[in-house]
Design goal:
The complex is a heterodimer of chains A (about 550) and B (about 110).
Chain A lengths: L1 H6 L9 H14 L6 H28 L7 E4 L10 E4 L1 H21 L10 H17 L3 H19 L5 H32 L4 H8 L4 H21 L8 H8 L2 H7 L2 H16 L12 H21 L3 H21 L3 H33 L15 H4 L23 H18 L5 H14 L4 H30 L11 H19 L1 H15 L2 H10 L5 H6 L4
Antiparallel strand pairs in A: 1-2
Helix pairs in contact in A: 2-3, 2-5, 3-4, 4-5, 4-11, 4-15, 4-20, 5-6, 6-7, 7-9, 7-10, 8-22, 9-12, 10-14, 11-15, 12-14, 13-14, 13-19, 14-15, 14-19, 15-17, 15-18, 15-20, 15-21, 17-19, 17-20, 18-19
Chain B lengths: L1 H19 L4 H22 L24 H32 L12
Helix pairs in contact in B: 1-2, 2-3
Chain lengths: ~550, ~110
């Protein structure tokens, strides 16, 4: 492993590749007619796999550098910061890239069995969604962040409506209206910050903030707060999150699974800009808005936990668990504590993957309950896994009074698979030992004990209570779905539908198994976030590539 | 001029907020458009308002904000207009789709029960 890591070349010129790859793929797929879906699926899958490889390489590359200089800077069009747009790769954005990629790959492979038939241009929108996500995670420029936000939002509007139907259109209308308003707030915030600091480069803004005269500081704080409102709407923080349950429960399963990463974009943006602009060393502006983040997060956590308990379907539980994880993350990051932050980053990875898996499981569960005639007709069943359908009785089987097979009737293989994965997802989401949810929560709880303040103890209690409530609600649904004695025909699942769930939950198990290196990565990430000077220096010192010297090989 | 601009922004933002809170989809659409006009004017105005100061460098005139207006907010407004236009068009499509599916123009797809 370590020898392989040493082989990774200098990737700093590859930082832009995760943005260009989906853009090129989307453009290529636009040229292919809709009836050639197999070709589109193949291109999409290959491109997403290439993106995953690329982002894992970027993560390994950034991680092998010493902690103080673990930044990759890409100057777009070779313009030096702050005049051009910069793309910045650090541990946080590399981690978000890999997460977005894994979620994308999982929902794509799930969609390939049936969902991509449900509407037009699924593959193009999907790649544009990925492009917006990667761009938002990589960019170091505030207005460029707005542009990538709009790219990912525009794609998400299309994806949310994928499959059609009046419920989706209604939820889509609300979703679009809320996000358009949030985008306007984003623009106001950007304009005010530009008016005060005269720059849009994030590192440069952070630098100029220290020089802001006291008379402009109120305006600056107002701008930052308005900008934060836009991000917090995206992150689904109470009371800005009433759009989420409607949108996420009506979206088709692979789209809802992909949306598990969308709220994390809002959280990422808050984390990035807040740690960069308002660190403890920022004089009068130090930790501006920390209380709002902490108590907003706590309120979100309460709202989500109550919602989970009140939810009548697994789909709503999944939607509210997204809100709970947002609340946990925003509150935890608001404390601005390195140990707590590293636990929260671990939780970010674990909750994104498990939330995505739960949304995919939901549809299979609902299919298992509702399968009767017309639902099954959508399924061709051409290449169904044999083990899952082969429940026909053998000629000489023992039959009971109702002419039913006695052996093998209790739990069909498909249902056993679902039950197993549902149990694992429950354990991770509720934060029960021994999987990744528990490790991340334990790390956060340990850090909260050391804080000794009211907000810390409140979050401490709520983390435990919300886990308990999530476990109760999910177990109740599990009993309803798996232990009820309804007669039902065998459930048909495609291998491609089971694979992504196993991939996501398997990654969560690996996160727990490799807890030590993962936690040390998260710790290094949190430390770097609390030392924003490293980021600022790396961006401002980045030099344009000197073409003549590198091409001709003339050493100065 | 500052007074006229700020009054225009205020009136459009106020009317926009009022319309966005109305229950009819078309009112929401017009409200969102008015709000985006207000925001665009606002972005434009953060780059210092000036008359007869094009952001194009002339020979012999020092390149600072005393002699020219700031070009950056103008390019930001341009981007914001394009993006706002596209998303408003998408909202319009949704509005028509909802109207076709529900037969009404209430934002919730059904009339409130009194």
């Amino acid at each position: 492993m370590s020898t392989f890591v040493n082989l990774i070349p200098d990737m700093s010129q590859w930082i832009v590749a995760p943005v260009l790859l989906p853009l090129a793929t989307a453009a290529l797929m636009l040229l292919i007619k809709e009836r050639h879906r197999p070709i589109k699926s193949t291109i999409n899958l290959v491109s997403t796999l290439a993106g995953l490889t690329l982002s894992v390489l970027l993560l390994l590359w950034v991680n092998k550098q010493p902690a103080a200089s673990a930044y990759g800077i890409y100057l777009a069009s070779n313009w030096q910061a702050p005049f051009g747009i910069v793309l910045v790769l650090d541990r946080l954005s590399a981690m978000m890239l890999v997460l977005a990629n894994m979620v994308g790959l999982a929902s794509l492979s799930y969609a390939l069995t049936r969902w991509h038939h449900a509407g037009v241009q699924f593959h193009v929108l999907f790649q544009l969604q990925l492009m917006g996500l990667y761009g938002a995670f990589l960019t170091g420029d505030l207005f460029n962040l707005f542009v990538f936000f709009e790219v990912l939002l525009a794609a998400s509007y299309g994806l949310l409506l994928h499959g059609g139907g009046s419920a989706r259109v209604r939820a889509g209308l609300h979703y679009v209206a809320v996000n358009l308003l949030a985008s306007l707030l984003f623009l106001i915030g950007v304009a005010v910050i530009y008016g005060v600091t005269g720059t849009l480069n994030m590192a440069d803004i952070a630098q100029k903030l220290l020089l802001t005269p006291a008379s402009d500081r109120g305006l600056l704080h107002a701008g930052a707060a308005i900008l934060a409102l836009a991000f917090l709407t995206k992150a689904a923080v109470w009371p800005l999150n009433f759009w989420l349950p409607g949108a996420y429960t009506t979206a088709s399963a692979p789209v809802a699974a992909l949306f598990a990463i969308l709220t994390k974009v809002g959280i990422y943006s808050v984390l990035r800009l807040w740690t960069l602009c308002f660190p403890t060393a920022a004089g009068d502006s130090a930790l501006f808005g920390a209380d709002a983040l902490v108590w907003g997060g706590i309120a979100t956590l309460i709202f989500g936990a109550i919602g989970i308990l009140a939810a009548s379907s697994v789909r709503r539980i999944a939607a509210f668990s997204i809100i709970t994880s947002s609340g946990t993350l925003i509150a935890a990051f608001g404390f601005s504590d390195i140990a707590l932050g590293s636990g929260a980053l671990f939780y970010l990875a674990s909750s994104t993957l498990s939330g995505c898996a739960l949304f995919l499981l939901v549809e299979l569960l609902e299919r298992a309950r509702q399968i009767s005639g017309h639902h099954a007709s959508i399924d061709h069943g051409h290449d169904t896994l044999h083990a899952f359908v082969d429940t026909e009785p053998m000629p000489d089987t023992n039959l009971d009074d109702d002419e039913k097979v006695l052996v093998g009737r209790v739990i069909p293989a498909a249902l056993a698979f679902l039950g197993m994965n549902f149990a694992i997802a429950t354990v991770i989401i509720a934060g029960l030992p021994p999987l990744s949810g528990f490790i991340s929560k334990l790390t956060m709880l340990q850090a909260l004990i050391d804080l000794h303040n009211t907000a810390g103890w409140t979050l401490f209690a709520l983390l435990i209570v919300s886990g308990l409530l999530a476990a109760m609600a999910l177990m109740r649904q599990g009993i309803r779905h798996f232990w009820s004695s309804q007669e039902r025909p065998s459930l048909r699942m495609h291998a491609l539908e089971t694979l992504p769930i196993m991939l996501l939950l398997g990654t969560c198990i690996l996160l727990a198994a490799w807890g030590e290196p993962v936690l040390s990565y998260m710790h290094a990430t949190a430390e770097a976030l609390h030392q924003p000077q490293g980021y600022i220096d790396a961006v401002m010192a980045a030099q344009p590539v000197d073409k003549i010297v590198t091409i001709e090989g003339i050493a100065p | 001029m500052e007074f006229v601009i700020s009054l225009a922004i205020g009136v459009m933002a106020g009317a926009g907020v009022w319309l966005v809170l109305r229950p009819r989809t078309f009112q929401v659409l017009i409200g969102l458009s008015l709000l985006s006009y207000a925001v665009n004017l606002f972005i434009f105005s953060v780059g210092s308002l000036a008359i007869d100061k094009a952001p194009i460098v002339k020979p012999g005139l020092a390149a600072n904000l005393l002699n020219y207006s700031d070009p950056l907010p103008q390019s930001l407004v341009l981007t914001a207009i394009v993006i706002g236009f596209a998303t408003t068009a998408l909202f319009l499509v949704l509005l028509l789709a909802l109207r076709g599916l529900s037969g009404g123009d209430h934002v919730d797809g059904e009339e409130e029960k009194h």
